[in-house]
Write a structure and sequence with these properties.
With 666 residues, the chain is of the alpha/beta class. Helix 14 (248-257) links the parallel strand 6 (241-245) and strand 7. The two termini are 41 Å apart.
Length: 666
């Protein structure tokens, strides 16, 4: 039992360690003390490597960095260029080849098909002296052992391979440039799929003009043994020849031993441990495969913000929009309202890839919500506006504070209550300010009724005739949805049903009550779902965790404050111009949109899945939150404010400063 526990924690728990160790251990399988020590040393080395690299940016570290033109120049020196196929010319959408078997298991509802298919291939290879088999050989074993109809399942697997395979954009560009130069281009693969099948896959991926394809299963000779290289040499008389591939043994050493030149193109999927380990197999495989293909092939250029958006926001926004689409249909919603500013990128992704329910991007903010609901939630208003400024010890005058939160009209009345407008807002005067607000509550309500009226005019045009709407935001209390429900339903249209959706809901009684009633739904976490994620997100780094989510979604515009009526028109008023962040925001959201585009290419695969769970969608971001030094490096100078209203430069701080304040980093 102890031996099994040690094996699980040191080897089997981490897929990268398991795969790397099993490959290594094949060379040292006997029980001689020297080989036992070698295997033990390898286990310790792999665990140390994973531990040390947990917080590193492995994407950047392992990205292939040779420019296309440089590689073309190198390969063009040869008469014949041989390309390995899988992981060189062709990528799969999944990062692991056997994930296609699990996909077939899911699609055709055949429990344990993946393991049966893997065992059948192993048995078929063991029966063949040189271990080279065709797909027909494998399914002959499956037909005999499991009563599968071989011809039917062969077609299914080939169809699935064609669905998930696509061109490596870097190698495709190299291939096409070499083709223009008139070079002889061949493809060489150790594979159980025949050259005819591989020809179809290569052609559909854009590789027109391949002179010849050599496959181990057709010729019963492999690259791994070196025999396939000898066969090609004898058949082609290739002249000066070079082979490019991703396997150090088969594509490099064996080619060199046969007298060929070789060029190593690193396998983009080799560092699987850099990704979250707690994702479901198929969605996790798609996420990793797509991320590796785009970020590590060497073809695309990007900065840290793009990478952050691609890796941490892409799956989250795509999954959230997919879930919103289903939620809206389940609730029979007639219109979806994506609330500014966090709803900006959500609405773009929703309209681009789902768009089954009419949707609008609408202006709203915490500041306008506070004013609209002042008459009901007066204490909360005071705490979130004046109280928040007092806690921050910003050393602003009472006059300045009132001006920032829209109470300018009350400033002359301060002196009537013997409050000096030039006095600093702090806890020495705070209780008197609270009494002052309650004393003048009726005046404030009357003033804020104008905000209510103008906001209602704006929304009534958007939702005209609708009776069931869905308000979409990021999180965490859903205060915008509460305010809009109060304004639109309670004050104007009692028959209107207002539902709301959040990425995450805080563990609060009011939030729980709304979820329990069915009026609020949470995608990733709440007291009702993924409580483990809720606990992680709400730990002592809550403010940083919130920010690392929110910065993914904000629009490149200043925060909306409220509507004003000018010459009969409703005109929006905006606050502080956060232009220092716009470059970062733009790059992050380009990354998110690019991921959504790449992921959506394989929507036919996703149709056969239940959808992207909130747990899967949040996993990359949760993993990123634990890479504290990396987060600090990216967002050290990103400016934010925790205040609502017309905050000025004094209310601005950097995320880097906030990370230090909360000891997120030392």
């Amino acid at each position: 039992m102890l031996k099994m526990l040690i094996k699980y924690h040191l080897i089997e728990k981490n897929e990268y360690i398991k795969e790397s160790y099993e490959f290594y251990a094949q060379k040292y399988m006997d029980k001689k003390i020297f080989n036992l020590l070698k295997r033990a040393g390898k286990i310790l080395q792999l665990n140390y490597q994973v531990h040390m690299q947990k917080n590193e940016d492995m994407i950047k570290k392992n990205k292939f960095k040779v420019p296309v033109e440089r590689l073309v120049d190198i390969l063009a020196e040869y008469d014949t260029i041989s390309f390995d196929i899988f992981d060189t010319m062709i990528f799969r959408a999944f990062d692991h080849p056997t994930d296609v078997f699990l996909y077939l298991e899911t699609k055709y509802n055949v429990p344990n098909f993946q393991s049966l298919r893997k065992e059948a291939e192993k048995d078929a290879r063991n029966k063949n002296k040189n271990r080279e088999v065709t797909i027909a050989d494998i399914y002959d074993v499956l037909e005999r052992q499991c009563n599968f109809k071989a011809s039917e399942w062969i077609d299914r697997e080939i169809e699935a391979e064609k669905q998930i395979c696509f061109a490596n954009p870097y190698i495709l560009e190299v291939f096409l440039k070499l083709k223009e130069k008139g070079k002889r281009l061949i493809a060489t693969s150790d594979m159980y799929l025949s050259s005819d099948i591989l020809s179809d896959i290569l052609t559909q991926s854009g590789y027109d003009g391949i002179n010849q394809i050599f496959v181990s299963c057709d010729l019963q000779k492999s690259k791994a043994s070196g025999e396939l290289y000898s066969h090609i040499e004898n058949e082609l008389n290739p002249g000066r020849i070079i082979h490019i591939g991703d396997n150090q043994w088969s594509d490099v050493k064996q080619a060199n031993d046969m007298g060929w030149e070789s060029y190593y193109y690193p396998n983009i999927n080799i560092d699987r441990y850099m990704y979250p380990s707690n994702m479901s197999t198929l969605v996790g495989g798609l996420y990793r495969g797509i991320s590796n293909a785009y970020l590590k092939s060497g073809f695309h250029q990007y900065d840290d913000y793009f990478e952050y958006g691609f890796l941490n926001g892409g799956l989250l926004v795509y999954g959230y929009c997919q879930w919103i689409n289903k939620l809206a249909k389940d609730k029979k919603v007639e219109q979806i309202l994506f609330v500014a500013r966090d709803g900006y990128i959500m609405e773009k992704v929703y309209k681009q890839y789902f768009n089954e329910i009419p949707s609008s991007y609408v202006l709203f903010s915490r500041f306008s919500a506070e004013q609209i609901t002042f008459e009901r939630y007066t204490k909360k208003y005071i705490d979130q506006t004046l109280g928040n400024r007092c806690r921050k010890n910003l050393k602003m005058t009472i006059e300045h504070a009132f001006s920032e939160i829209g109470l300018d009209f009350l400033i002359p009345s301060l002196e009537d209550d013997c409050i000096d407008r030039k006095m600093l807002l702090d806890y020495n005067i705070y209780d008197r300010i609270i009494d002052f607000i309650y004393k003048h509550k009726a005046e404030i309500v009357k003033e804020f009724e104008k905000v209510q009226e103008q906001t209602y005019r704006y929304y009534s045009e958007i939702i005209k005739g609708r009776k069931r709407i869905l308000i979409v935001d990021v999180g965490w209390f859903g205060s915008c949805a509460v305010a809009l429900d109060y304004l639109l339903r309670e004050k104007h249209d009692i028959d209107l049903e207002v539902f709301s959706a959040l990425i995450g809901g805080t563990p609060d009684g009011a939030v729980d009550a709304r979820i329990q009633s069915g009026k609020l739904s949470s995608y990733v976490f709440s007291n009702f779902i993924n409580v483990d994620i809720l606990k992680f997100h709400m730990d002592n780094q809550l403010i940083i965790h919130n920010l690392l989510v929110e910065i993914l979604f904000t629009e490149m515009k200043p925060s909306f404050l409220k509507f004003r009526e000018i010459s009969g028109d409703i005109v929006p008023e905006f606050g502080y111009e956060e232009c220092d962040n716009y470059k970062a925001i733009d790059s992050m959201q380009k990354g998110m949109l690019q991921f959504a585009e790449e992921f959506n290419r394989f929507k036919n695969l996703i149709v056969n899945l239940e959808g992207i769970s909130g747990h899967d969608a949040y996993a990359p971001l949760q993993s990123m939150m634990e890479k504290r030094k990396q987060c600090y490096h990216i967002f050290e100078n990103y400016k934010i404010s925790q205040l609502s209203g017309k905050f000025s430069e004094s209310g601005i701080q950097t995320i880097g400063d906030l990370m230090k304040e909360f000891r997120y980093v030392k």
